Amino acid sequence: MKINTLLVGLLTSVTLVVGSAQAAELSIVSGDTGNGLAFLRSQLDKFEADTGHTVTVVPMPSSTTDQFGQYRLWLAAGNTDIDVYQTDVIWAPQLADQFLDLTEAAKDVVGDHFPSIIESQTVDGKLVALPAFTDAPALYYRKDLLEKYGKTPPTTWAEMEATAKEIMDGERADGNPEMWGFVFQGNAYEGLTCDALEWVMSNGGGQIVEADGTISINNENAAAAIDRAAGWIGTISPEGNLAYMEEESRGVWQLGNSVFHRNWPYAYSLGNGDDSPIKGLFDVVPLPAGDGEGARSAATLGGWNVAVSKYSPDPEAAIELALFLSSAEVQKERAINQSNLPTIEALYDDADIAAAQPIIPAWKEIFQNAVPRPSAPTKTDYNEVSSMFWSAVHNTLSGNGTAAENLELLEADLTELKGDAW
Amino acid sequence: MATEALAPPAAGAGPRIKSELTQQRLRAARWFLVPMLIALAVVAGWPLLRSIWFSFTDASLNNLYGAEWIGFGNYLRWQVLESGTVRWRGLLVDGAWWNAVWNTVRFAFTSVFFETIFGMIVALVLNAEFRGRGIVRAAILIPWAIPTIVSAKMWAWMLNDQFGILNDLGMRLGLLSQKVAWTAQAETAMTAVLVVDIWKTTPFMALLILAGLQMIPKDIYEAADIDGVHPVKQFFRITLPLVRPALMVAIIFRLLDALRIFDLIYVLTPNSVATKTMSVLARENLFDFDNFAYGSAQSTLLFLLIAVLTMLYIWLGKVRFDGGDR
Amino acid sequence: MTATFDLWKFTKSVLFYALVVFIVVVSVFPFYYAILTSLKSGTDLFRITYWPTSFDLGNYASVLNQGSFPRNLLNSVFVSAVTVIGALFIAVTASFALSRVRFRGRGLLLMTILAVSMFPQMAVLAGLFEVIRALGIYNTPWALIFSYTIFTLPFTVWVLTTFMRELPVEIEEAAIVDGASPWVIITRVFLPLMWPALVTTGLLAFIAAWNEFLFALTFTSSNDTRTVPVAIALLSGGSQFEIPWGIIMAASVIVTVPLVVLVLIFQRKIVSGLTAGGVKG
Amino acid sequence: MASIELRNVRKAFGAVEVIKGVDLEVRKGEFMVFVGPSGCGKSTLLRLISGLEDITSGEMLFDGKVVNALAPSKRGIAMVFQSYALYPHMTVYENMAFGLTLEKGQSKEEIQRRVEKAADMLQIRQYLDRLPKQLSGGQRQRVAIGRAITRDPKVFLFDEPLSNLDAALRVATRIEIAKLHEEMNQVTMIYVTHDQVEAMTLADRICVLRDGLVEQVGSPMELYEHPNSVFVAGFIGSPKMNFISGEKAAAFNAETVGIRGEHIAIVPDNGTWSGTVIHTENLGADSYVYLEMGTEEPVVVRLDGANDYKSGDVVHIAPMEDKIHRFDGAGKPIR
Question: How near does any CA of chain C get to the CA of B50, in Å?
Answer without folding.
Answer: 6
